[in-house]
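A student in our group prepared the protein record below, which I am reviewing. Here is the record exactly as it was handed to me.
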Amino acid sequence: MWCGNVPTDASQEELWRFFTQTTDSLRLLTTPLQSAPQDTHGVLSIFLMSRSNCAFVNFSSARHLDRACSLFHGTKLRYQSNNDPPVCRARRLEDVEHAGVAAQRGKGVHTSWYRKEKQQQKPISEEANDRTLSSKSGDSVSFSSTDSSLLSQPQFAHRFFILKSRNSEALKTALRTNIWSTQTHNESVLDQAFRKSEKVTLLFSENHSGHFFGYATMAVVNTEPLPFRKINKLRNPWRDNRLVKVSRDGTELEPNVGRQLLSIWESTT
């Protein structure tokens, strides 16, 4: 569920208390709730985007989602506030497919980058011959999707992903246990990367912290923070050339940018 008109100073805890209420508690509410009910009414996670004055709430079932949209749309977050009441609506599948990291994966960034890298690596005399390779069985690379043989090519031997956390405690726990739990829509992509690439680097950051917490690969872990001011001008061509420091959870970096980021990181430690 997408929720708009969220006050800039709203906290994660306040939203949890609000979205886990019952119909009766909303009807009888005369003072702010001090704690969230034990029954979360299907709420799995809440992602607060303060700068955009909105939040995304994930539910365990369509029934819980429909209930929340009906219950909380137009219901004030703060009972004595003059702020506009929340606007709540269910996110359609097409909304999800055209937003965040899903949009990045649907733009063919891997295919276009692979072709560009191949052009830069081979002599001009080979360009004409290259056009004939795709017609020969066994010699062609499938470009139909990122589930194809494309990501098994040497150009994708080292891949880079940015992973975001809501708080530092989750990052410290991951460091202690060597386990990181990502969002469901990232799992298949990361699993595929680990199976097809020789090396996968994960770069961790807490939301609104102003720095990267650390990075990890299958063999190396670095937890020396990297301030975002060190990479102010670093941009990611695979995300419409946006600044790397404002990446979303699960964003993949163009490999050359990923290597540049690691080089900057290692030079500061």
